[in-house]
Amino acid sequence: MVKEKSFTVMTERYKKTLIALAFIVLLYVIGEITVGSFVSVHAIMQMIKFATYIALFALCQLLVICAGGDIDLSVGYTATLVAVLSAHILEGSNAQLWKAILIAVAVGGCIGLINGFLVSYVKLPSLVVTMGMANVAQGIVNVYSAKYGIGGSPSPVLKTITTGSIGVVPNIIWLLLVCTVIAMIVFYKTKIGVLLKSIGFNALASYRCGLKVQVIRTMAFVASGIIAGCVGLLLLGNLGQAFKDMASQYVMPSIAAVVVGGVSLNGGEGNYINVVLGAMVLQTLTNLFVSYGLGDAGKWLGIGAILLLMLIFYVREKVSR
């Protein structure tokens, strides 16, 4: 009886994780049956590799969603701006890598700080603010590229991190694993994580308890911007060059990954493992549509459909409780 009860509690605790895993397995079974040769070690490693970029951008979303139910639409062009600026500085040299990292932190941090200030202190909607900042970043990219062109190349270290591998496992997957462990520790084992979830769950109660709600929400946006900037460097290393709109395609999937992972858009939750699994669901779905020859139209249709289905599922589950 005790064992059954503990099993039930454990199943309920990891329910969303199990659902995401089951979805991935289901998609692979469908792919193997309908396409053939869809399941292999190489295919799975490549799926996780490409899902890594969605997952890292989704970490940006998780931070601002957890802290206040906000959305950051500027992450794509923050990453693009950092990549364009860094490509000119690096010029294939490891010696300049520290400058590129500094640019990622400074540019991403500044964009995040502006977003956070306008959302937390001026009380503007995060969708409007971050969309505006995305347009500003895009404008800077256009002006910069028109004057200086888009050139340069990543350093060998960046190339190794993003395109190299240890055995059959790409290096970028090891990086995702490290980021996942760090994120879970921060969200569940540190005071910062407790504060983020507390103000996200109930900002008014947190404010009455003396927590600096506005500061914490602002810092969540700053962290989001810095992470987006660093992901821009990784994309530069992976693609070998910077170009306009190189990261804009990741914005909607990064939000979808959070939803598919079962994280409440109202805030107060920070399970990054589920978000990573959500990113893998989206990437597996994309691979399946590519195998069917449906292209981008099919991919976005699939992402939209699965996003709606997951939203309906979790809303109905919440109402039933």
Automatic annotation (TrEMBL):
Pfam families: BPD_transp_2 (PF02653)
UniProt KW rRNA-binding keyword: no
Xref: InterPro entries: ABC_transp_permease
Entry GO terms, CC: plasma membrane
Keywords, in A-Z order: Cell inner membrane, Cell membrane, Membrane, Transmembrane, Transmembrane helix, Transport
Topological type in the membrane: Multi-pass membrane protein
MF terms in GO: transmembrane transporter activity
Location relative to the cell: Cell membrane
Transmembrane segments: 47-66, 73-90, 96-119, 126-146, 166-188, 215-235, 247-265, 272-292, 298-315
Protein name in the entry: Autoinducer 2 import system permease protein LsrD
Upper classification of the organism: Bacteria, Bacillati, Bacillota, Clostridia, Lachnospirales
